[in-house]
Each structure stands twice: as structure tokens, then as C-alpha cells.
Amino acid sequence: MDLALVVTRFVHFAALLILFGAGFFALALAPASLAGDIARLLRRLTLPLALLALASGLAWLVLVTRDMSGGPADLPTIEAVLTGTEFGSVWQPRLVILLLLVLSALRPGRRWIIPTALAGLAVASLGLVGHAAMQEGATGIAHRLNHAIHLLTVSIWLGGLPPFLLCLSLVQNARSRHDAIKAMIHYSNLGHVVVVAVLVTGVINIALTSHAVPWPLDTGYRAGLAAKIFVYCIMVALALFNRYGLVPRIGHNPTAARALAWGTVAQIVLALVAVALVSGFATLNPNPIS
Amino acid sequence: MKLFPLFSAAGLTTLLAVSPVFAHALLQSAVPPVGGTVSAPTEIRITYSEGIEPLFSGITLSGPDGAVPVGPATTAPGDDKVMVIRIGQNLKPGSYTVSWHAVSVDTHHTKGSFDFTVK
Prior knowledge:
The structure holds two protein chains of two kinds. By secondary structure, chain A is mostly helical. Chain A has helices at 3-29, 35-69, 75-84, 86-106, 113-124, 137-159, 161-170, 177-209, 220-246, 254-281. The two termini of chain A are 20 Å apart. The model of chain A has no long low-confidence stretch (mean pLDDT 93). By secondary structure, chain B is mainly beta. In chain B, the strands form two sheets. Chain B has a five-stranded mixed sheet, with no helix packed on it. In chain B, strands 1-3-7-6 form a four-stranded antiparallel sheet, with no helix packed on it. Chain B is elongated, with a radius of gyration of 20 Å. Chains A and B meet through α2, α3, α9 and α10 of A and α1 of B.
């Protein structure tokens, strides 16, 4: 496996998934009174993550150029890949979006609509690469669209976790406690839908890519996919415990609040493990010739 | 909970041990047909198992008088699995060898060769 490509993919996916989801939380889930607190968090996250997304997007282009040409990736060859290959036809507009994302992060407004929308486009357009792009025609459109939805819902889940953690800390503050809890409950309620959407779109992806359950674990692809499904199951169990076991208690129980903070950190780690798995196994052959 | 680190370690080790075999473009059919006999063709068409990138793919053609000039690789309109290459001169009767190399749309390299006869 190409380690450089796997690491590049991981940085690219993680940065964009967090960026869109955090912006979505700020715009759709948090009461307006929390805007200032959440904006402070976003201001710290957005530019670094946008720069990571752009840098990894460029690195990805260089690695693909090296792989396709079989030689060093000099500028004329990179340009040829960008203008003359199917990968390039998707990557050109994506790089423009990523550049606009960095520029928008330099001068954000208070409401973060533009960076969030651009991040959403950057996430959704990842549905046009990889195995999601392996078919043509109607099946091809359905697969790409399904994968875009999969990525957006994963992003709402993962990206919402840092703002969720922030809201948890705001519970200590009498001024913001009520709205912080409201935002956390909005996130957790939407979480029921998001978790199901991630599962349904994930199953459709599997049906269209490898057409089979990842069993037995005799290939790298199946082992990676099975591990990712396992991580998903743990995340769902933890989310249910966080939502129904801990959230109702945090108003009056400092131990519950601390446990929820650690539970949220655990969710972030687990989600990043899942992203790392995909960064690796999804570069392998889903259906090796037997 | 103790199984999880073991599981991921096993999964990760498997991942690192394999080489990526995703979507190599393999020759499925050709015109002139592999090993076939035809009257002088003006182009070579090769149908692959995966989409190819014409920019990084191509053939060399050699015959009774040595190398034959050929045009750059293109793909058939609407079908990136078919490589089309114009032959740069009239082929006289004899045996010819096509040596092809292809890069699939997801960057994997393949190559091969086949013969045909011009009657």
C-alpha cells in the first residue's frame, strides 16, 4: 500500500469532514446566543483545517501524477494530469473550491455561511472520486450521489463533536448553560437521523462497490471494511449511552458532565480511526480476481 | 473491549501487507483480433476491462520492415475502456506485433502484446 497516499487521504478527509460538520453545528444546531462562543472555536479551527485540506489536495494531485506517469511529477506533467485525465477533470474544480475555502477562512463573516458552504461542496465532491466513481450511467450517478450523502452525514456527526464538547464546557457557565444544553440536545436528536443515514448510505455503497458482506476477512479490503463497521457499532453504542445515560444528568451531576466530555473525546478518536481505515483499505481492490 | 485493539491491529497488519490491485486495465479484445488475419487495417482498437487514461497509454507497432509510425492513443467517444490508435501508413502483408501499455483511470499500469497478420 502507498503510505504517502494513505496519509494524504487521511489528512484531506479529516480536515474537510470536521470543517463542514463544525460549521453545520454553528449554523443549524446552536441557538443564536451561543454564536459568539462557537465563532471563537471556528475561528481557531477553520484556517488551519482549510490549509491542511488545500495542501493535502495538492499532494494528492502530485502523487496521482507520479503514479500515472511512472516518473517524477514535474509541473508540465501535473498540468497534463489536471487538464487531460478523468481524475483531473474532478480535481480541478475541487482545488478551486479548496482555494476559495482558504480565502474565505482568512476573512470570515460572523455567520460562517460561506466557509461552511464551501466545505460542504468540498466534502460532497469527494463523492466523485474512488470506488464511488467506478460505474457509468444511471448506476454511476446513484453511486456518486449516495457517497456524497454518506460523506456529508459522516461530517455532520464527526464535525459536530468539537462544538458539542465546547457546549459541554459552557454548561458550567450560568449564562450559557440553558442554550448549551439545548444545542447538545439538538445535536443528539439529529444524531438519531444521522446515524441511520450513515448506515443506510454505507450499506448502499457496499452493495454497489463490492456487492457482498465483508466476510470472510481474506482480503485487506474486507478486513478494513469490517473493522470500520465494527468501529461504527461502538460509536453508536457510545452515542446512545452519552445521550440517554449522561446528557439527562449533566445539569446536576458534575461526574456525568466529566464522563460525557471523555465520551465525546472517545467518539472523536473512534471517528478518526474509521476515517484512517477508509484512507487505507479503500485504495485496495474490493473484488480481487479469483 | 479487549478484542478491539486486537481486531484493528490484525486488520491494519493485513492492510499493510497487501499491494493495491484495484482496477488494472486488462486486454479483453482487440481489432484486429489477437492472432487474427485481416486486410490492411487503418487503426488499432483495444478494449480493456477498466477505463484508461489515453494521455499515459499507447502502443508500438512493428512489422516486417521494423517499426510502424502510429498516432497518439485516444479513447472511443463515450467509452474510456476502448483505446483507439490510428496507423500512420499503409500496412503491407505480413506479421505484426502490437506492444501496448495502459494506465487505468485510477493510476494502475499494465502492459502486454499481441500479434496479427495482414493478408
